[in-house]
Amino acid sequence: MAALRDAVRRCYLSDEKLLTQAQILELELGGTFESRQTEIIKSKLPDPSSTMAGDFGEILIYAYQATKALPSVTIGPKKWRLKQDRTKPAPCSDVVHFILPTWPVSSTRDEVLCAEVKMKATNGASTPIQDAITDCEKDRISRLSRTLQWLKERALTENIGEVQIAHLNRFIKATDHPPAIRRFRAVAVISENLVDTELLNAPQQASPEYELVVVAVPNLHTVYNAVFEAAKSYTLPAAPQL
User: Sign of the C-alpha dihedral, residues 1, 10, 23, 242?
Assistant: First the structure.
């Protein structure tokens, strides 16, 4: 739980920014250092809603791909930091990772992986597998290209994590580099008690255009609510010196 708690919060707000801003507010407004951290964190994370559920699914796949499914040379933007409205989903493609094995030299082994993520935590009419496949097509047709450009524009003035503008330009200005690989995933994150029923809606044959991934999470509704609640209430122990 602690690992997920910290991973979720860091997708919206870095440790450094949280600590620095909390110290500024403590000096400016008073109160405790811990209470100012809590105030800042709550200003960034979504309230319990479909947006929170969707964000959790995206962050779960972001973390899974970065730590388990892809090589160690993988990097990805934390696009949840760029939200204009915490109550709404972040725009553009859900999860993007770059695989750059010989960076800063570009090569034909460079890849961009784009994942469309759908969540289903409770029983209802939604069809996460089919919906993920349908929206994955939008990424393949045009949305990934728009996402890369949007990330570049935001990176000009904001910290989007470890991704740099040069990384984005490698794929935006594709003709200036060796041909790169573009891979797409349709991902459904489903509560374990619902997954067998939802798998009945899965295609019978694999597609050459995308990879279908289904992730089953026990007690998904309880888990994501608990993770976000923990992320909102946990504070870091020390402040940097300004």
Answer: positive
Q: What does each C-alpha distance from 198 to 55, 91, 127, 184, 195 come to in angstroms?
A: 21, 26, 7, 21, 5
Quote the CA–CA distance of 95 and 80 in Å, as a whole number.
10
Which ranges constitute the DSSP H helices of the chain?
Answer: 2-12, 15-29, 33-44, 50-64, 128-138, 144-155, 165-172, 195-199, 220-233
CA–CA separation, 97 vs 66, rounded Å?
8
Contact by Cβ (8 Å): 93, 143: yes
Q: Which of 145, 223, 133, 140 is nearest to 187 (CA)?
A: 133
Residues 6+ apart with CB under 8 A from 231: 5, 6, 8, 9, 41, 45
pLDDT computed for residue 224 by the predictor:
97
Paired with 96 in beta bridges are 114
CA-based R_g, the chain, Å: 19
pTM score above 0.85: yes
Average pLDDT over the chain, rounded to whole? 94
pLDDT of residue 76: 95
Q: Quick one: average pLDDT of 21-50?
A: 94
pLDDT (average), residues 56-83:
91
- List, as own/partner pairs, every contact residues 38-41 make where C-beta atoms lie below 8 angstroms and the sequence separation is at least 24, other chains included: 38/232, 38/233, 38/235, 40/13, 41/9, 41/12, 41/13, 41/231, 41/232, 41/235
What pLDDT score was predicted for residue 239? Answer: 54
